[in-house]
Amino acid sequence: MNEFALITSVALSVISASTPLLLAATGELVTEKSGVLNLGVEGMMLVGAIVGFAVTLGTGSAVLGVCAAALAGAAMALVFAVLTLTLLANQVATGLALTIFGIGLSALIGSGYVGQPLQPLPKLAVPGLSTLPVVGPILFGQDALVYLSFAALIAVSWFLRRSHAGLILRAVGDSHDAAHAIGYGVIKVRYLATLFGGAMCGIAGAYFSLAYTPMWAENMTSGRGWIALALVVFATWRPARLLLGAYLFGGITILQLHIQGFGIPVPSQFVSMLPYLATIVVLVAISSDRTRVRLNTPACLGRAFNAAG
Predict the structure, then answer these.
(1) How many other CB atoms are there within 10 angstroms of residue 57's CB atom?
(2) Please, what are the domains in the chain?
(3) What's the pTM?
(4) Residue partners of 3: CB distance under 8 A and separation at least 6
(5) What tens digit of pLDDT does each residue of 54-64 get?
(6) Which of 161, 242, 304, 308 is most exposed, with the fewest beta carbons within 10 Å of its own?
(7) Angle subtended at Cα 18 by Cα 17 and Cα 22, rounded to the nearest 5 degrees
(8) Which residues of 242-276 are buried (b: 16+ CB within 10 A; e: fewer)?
(9) Count of C-beta atoms within a 10 Å radius of residue 306
(10) Neighbours of 5 (CB within 10 A)
(11) Rounded to an integer, what is the distance from CA 123 to the centroid of its chain?
C-alpha cells in the first residue's frame, strides 16, 4: 500500500468512527443546553440502530431506515421527557433506566436480524472531484450521514448563537424560573430539545447498522453513547469544540485497531480500553479547570422545573 493510499484509508476510518459520536453529541448538546440531562444516549442509539436496520432491510430504502431510526430515538426520548418533565422523575436515574431499557429492547427486536447482510449506505460521488488523490475520497466520497453530521453541527451552532429560539433555549437552561417569569414555555422548550436529542441519537445508531458495520449485532454501539455524553462535557457545551472532540476520540478508536499492527507490544485488553481510558483522562483534566466548566455549564442542568411552584 503506497503512502497516499495509507493516508486515505486511515482518514476514512477516522471519519467513520467519529460520525456517530458527532451526531449523538450534537443532539445531546441541544438537550443539555435546555437544562435536561439525558443519560439514555446509549439506549436511544441502540434502538435507532435496530429500527433503522430493520426498516432498511424490509423496504430496501436507506432513507426510510434513517427516518425510522430518528423517530425511534425521538420516541425513546419522549418516554424520558414524560417521566422527567411531566412526572418530575429524577433525570439521572431515568436516563440510566432508559439505557438499560434500550439495550434490552434492541436485543429483543434484533434477535431475528442477527447475521443478515445489508448493503452499506452509498457513497456520494462527485464527478471529477471524488477521484482526486487523497482529498477526493475524503471530502467528496462520503455517505450522506457524514455530511449530515457537519450540517447539523453548523445549524445547531447558528441556532444557539444567532436565532431568537436558540436564545430562549439557552435562557431556559440557565434560569428556568426567570424564563418562566417572562412568559417562555419552559416545559415545551425542554420537550422539543429532548426530542431533537433523541432523534439525533437514533440517526447515530442507524449509522452503526447501515454504514459503519452494515449489519445488526447486539450491543453494537459498545459504549459509544457514554463517550458522546463525555464529549459534551469535553466541549464545555460549545459546538465548535464538539467537532474537535468527536474526531479526537474517533482517532483514538481507530488507533486501537492499528496499534498492534504497527508491532507495538501492547496487550489487546489494554488496547480495547484506549477510547474509554482517554475519556476518563480528558474528563479529569477538564474538571481541574472548575471555573471554565462552571461558566459554560447550563445553570439548571438536571434540575426539575415545576410551574406550580
Answers:
(1) 17
(2) 12-125+137-296 (1.10.3470)
(3) 0.92
(4) none
(5) 999 999 999 99
(6) 308
(7) 140
(8) bbebbbbbbbbbbbbeebeeeeeeeeeeebeebbb
(9) 10
(10) 11
(11) 21
